[in-house]
Amino acid sequence: MKLTLKRMLGLALALVMSIAVIGCGGGEQKAEEKKDAADEKLKIAFIYVGPIGDGGWTYAQDLGRIFLEKEVPGIETTYIESVPEGADSERVLTELAEKGNKIIFATSFGYMDAVIKVAQKYPDVKFLHCSGYKTAENAGTYFGRMYQARYLTGLMAGKETESNIIGYVAAFPIPEVIRGINAFTVGVREVNPEAKVKVVWTNTWYDPAAEKEAAKSLLEAGADVITQHQDTPGPMQAAEEKGKFGIGYNSDMASMAPKAVLTSAVWNWGPYYVDTVKAIQAGTWKSDQYWGPMSDGIVGLAPYGPMVSDEVKQLVEAKKQEILEGKWDVFTGPIKDQSGQEKVPAGQVMSDADMLSFDWFVEGVDGTIPK
What we know:
The chain is an alpha/beta fold and 371 residues long. The chain is built from 11 helices and 15 strands. 43% of the residues lie in helices and 19% in strands. This is BMP family ABC transporter substrate-binding protein.
């Protein structure tokens, strides 16, 4: 009986010891799991419509991604470039979500419907769509009031033209592009009521040859200042080859056509990306439609070219200050359309809803809007 009791006590002691060992091992395992989770980086992806070397839109977007990586620790970013708008974008967005990316920035207007579709399938992923207007609980939109910078460049073009014909190489007939043409023309006409802004459409975002040819056609029609909405410096190079002036877009295009470029209307995406990712990390992000003004720093002007006079610089800087301080905005009436009909009465400021749905040209634009 005593022997049996000893054996029972021994077995009990061994059982307690084994439980203790297992418990210690489990604790070590949990600690290791916690360490691995802490070491795991937040995966963020970007989908681009063009190549990062386009010198324009995608290049500016990628500068924002690089800025984000430098400013926010514990993240890992990737990108896929030259993704066509449409079915291909839905496939790529799905692949990025499947690979564990928890934040995806879709950086072109034509990705909009694909973003909404894929967002419904991956509710734990946050989607941010650039320049669109459709949202979901886990999908927001973002853009900047580029029309403010466009207006300022219009002031410069109106002052610099001698032929009173200014060429505008336009991308697609969507409200974003129309709004930019109109803002630019408001600036031109403010300082030069005799000038016209002649528009040629390419229906491209990135086609260097087509965009350069469109600029050449405008130069042959008498334009002596060229601006654009596409992602390549082709129109600026066409202007330089003819000894004329140009105003770049997306990023500073002076290095591609230094004798032509007066300035460029530029994007600065980095601060927005940093603020958005930090909000998502903190759990404070909510889907919205961000449309940041020039005072947020998301849009602005590149440095002036050496050919720009002090008089023109002072004019532009004075108007810029009014915009930055919120004292005035571009689409303040009276504003007429091409037919001379008043669309915005004197003293009235156009609403965001109307600006975001622009489907008409202001007085001074020489061109039509394709259906």
